[in-house]
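TICKET #2291
ISSUE: user wants both folds in one file
ATTACHMENT 1:
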Amino acid sequence: MADKILQINPEQARNLFLKKQLLINPELPEGKAGALKAIENLGYVQIDTINVIERSHHIVFLTRCPDYNQKYLHELQAKDKKIFEYWAHAASFIPMKDYRFYISHMGRKPKKDSWLDKWIREHRSLIKMVKARVNNHGPLAASDFKDVKKRRRGPWWDWKPAKMALETLFWQGDLMIKARRNFQRVYDITERVLPKNVDITKPSEEQEKKFFVKRALRAMGVATENDINKYIGVSGKLNKWINQMLKSKKIVKIEIKGIKKPYYILKDDLIALKKNKTTLDSKVRFLSPFDNSIILRDRTSALFHFDYSLEAYVPKTKRKYGYFCLPILWQNHLIGRIDPKADRKNRILIINNLHLEHKKINYTKFIPALTRALKDFVDFHNCEKIELNRNIPAKISHKITI
């Protein structure tokens, strides 16, 4: 007789997920140690270039670490060597202690006869020259290499050949990102970037795949097969290993009331879920569009009944909420969206749109929490005041005092 599948309610699932994502009463040390603990819990933090406000990775840390300072990320990467850059869900900062589980991906060759495979074969001498220059000179950025005049334009954001060679060497693991200079990557030979005590033993396929299953579940609490496969994209399909861990009872299959798909949970988390009752804090959090907690849009829709998409790449006339709209998390619900912009020259944080859509908002409690969150956001962006757009509902704007 098959074991009865445990069913939990959506609120239990959300609470566990948000606690794992450090979005409910995060228990983190102060300062840089807190930022490191956050990325080690999450598994990665995605890097993005859009800077209408602070870049996404800084917002992800701010949301979890109230005393976060932008310098922490630079120090963790360039000085302490506690994090490194590579592809996870996308281009990301990753805990250095996870380095060995990415080695096999660095060793993979591009698909035969793909444009990348052809480019590498056609530019072997350039790749060799670029690596030799970094080896002999020391850390270099793409801007330290000259472009080629009248070159034929191609894919990859029209990168110049030297930049493409640097990126190829980076993907292959021959170079690493030593630091960021004005957000531009600075490359160096891998052996010079890796700390001496890091484990570089290549894991077996089973070790690697089961690591990524556990890594995903530790960050999400409960997750479908699709969630687990996509949380860290380079992990590949993990269904086989999920089934193995299910048979060995390392993970457990559960159901969430009202959702047809099966979910999985680590055995230890299931025990804790049954014992612990979650206490919600009153903090309002603005989530980056690339925040780990909402990057899997189907999951966000299923658990929060909140459909979200980034409108930065949508024509202005077709945008509904704003260019860089951030979901608003309060307690254990996504209750709306805010579209901020930092006017750095005049030191004004402009709120272009504030759209609340949850039907059961207690405004008496919410407005003070929102005001505090906006004040913190103004300070974080080194602004002196806030400007609310006229289209923001008066019942909200008139009550916000900063």
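ATTACHMENT 2:
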Amino acid sequence: MTNSLLIAGSLIERGIIDFQNGQTENAIGLFTAALQHDSGSICAYANRATVYYTQGCYQQALNDLSRALELAPNLFALYINRGLTYNKLGETERSTADFGQAIRLDPQCFSQLLNQTIVLSPKEPEIAAAPASANSQPLTYSLTGVARKELHQGIFKVFSTMSEFCAAVNIPWDDFTLRKTQTDVLKFALLLYNQAIAKEPDNPFLYWDRSCLLSDTQQFEQAILDLNRALRLAPNNAVFWSNRGVVHYKLLDLSSALSDFTKALELNPNDAAIFANRAIVLIGLKRLREAVIDLERAIQITPDNGILVRLYETLSLSMLEQQKRHDCSI
């Protein structure tokens, strides 16, 4: 039995590598083989579900996630992934219920993993995370970034044109090629911004735009440096403060993110997105009552935002249940 478990773990690790390299069919085969050696492997079910999800096979993903939850009913990562899957299937009530359960199990981790599907490692089943597919539109609220300027938008037109050309001449455009090409385009965009800043070193919007690209390429520390420069040149720009809060959040520096969003709201107290972003940070800090207040303010500004309304209802329900448990323990 021990040997079978070791084989299963090895197959799962190989499957994760294949999945991350865009070899999705190989990954499914390896996770399926792992289940033949260990029919109770939560990692194999959960990771195979993630691959199915990226392929658009949502019902298969749902089946695997439901089986994994039978084996591990208190693993919050599974509720996040199943919530994303239910949302893709148009079952918003079940999606919201799963996200609510994830918040109740671990509010801080939930806020850190918004808009992501989670790949479970056989060694650390609750830690490793991988991005969701590019077309994913989950129900959960994610921190709002800023719009790109015309140059940034033009660079992405190059990428879009390449994608359309490959489709027209029937050239394979798999996930690995897509990610590599997108990275190359972003590097080219950064080169152009470097040249633009050399010509206009006192233009705060160029630093702001470049920070977006740096963040997109996971260069968060450099993005912070650019936003610091932009803020020195335009200290009363609420968008710059808000965007630095987003990057601090990505660095898991919740204290700095909270400070930035608070400053942004001092400058622009009528921006629902900033209130919502600060609420997400407060959830991560486990300051749930303050988060609820910020969500209320965001909803007052944009009452038709269904995502914020459902997140507010879920968080309020979670607090109510916590209070009930507290009252029962007294």
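RESOLUTION: both attachments delivered.
EXTRA DETAIL ON ATTACHMENT 2: Residues 144 and 287 are 20 Å apart (CA to CA).
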